[in-house]
């Protein structure tokens, strides 16, 4: 992903959303320094090229839409969750919403 693409993406966000996304980007970079960052489905996607592509090698995706910021994990059901923070079902990505249960209608799930 080019620096211009990243700048365009970040410039399209509100100030508060951009701050949250920037903080998450830093956390992902520290946790997965070898992950490649790309724009995918309107968000920032991180994957490990040595493991596979955007799905098989997926680490996470930062999604900023409709006033919410989510950190999605396509393989999230494999993650330990000792604090019972995730909201997901076995058939979809884990979501860690940034706000109080503001997941889109039809996508709410039990913690």
Number of domains: 1
Give the helix/strand class.
Answer: alpha+beta
Strand proportion? 25-35%
Largest sheet: 5 strands, antiparallel
Mean pLDDT: 75
| Shape-level CATH architecture | Alpha-Beta Complex
**What is the CA–CA distance across the termini?**
34 Å
Poorly predicted residue ranges: 89-111
Identify the strand order in the major beta sheet.
Answer: 1-2-3-4-5
The percent range for helix content is 10-25%
Question: If you consult CATH, what is the topology?
Answer: Aspartate Aminotransferase, domain 1
Radius of gyration: 14 Å
Q: Tell me, what's the shape? A: globular
Q: Supply the number of helical segments.
A: 2
Number of strands: 5
CATH class: Alpha Beta
Order of helices and strands: HHEEEEE
Question: Explain this structure to me?
Answer:
This protein has 2 helices and 5 strands; from the N terminus they run ααβββββ. It has about 110 residues and is α+β, with helices and mostly antiparallel strands. It has one domain: Aspartate Aminotransferase, domain 1 (Alpha-Beta Complex). A 5-stranded antiparallel β-sheet has the order 1-2-3-4-5, with helices on one face. Strand 3 (about 60-65) and strand 4 (about 70-75) form a beta hairpin. The radius of gyration is 14 Å and the shape is globular. Residues about 90-110 have low confidence and may be disordered.
The gist of it:
With 111 residues, the chain is an alpha+beta fold. The protein has 2 helices and 5 strands.
Task: List key phrases describing it.
111 residues, 2 helices, five-stranded antiparallel β-sheet, alpha+beta, disordered C terminus, globular, Aspartate Aminotransferase, domain 1
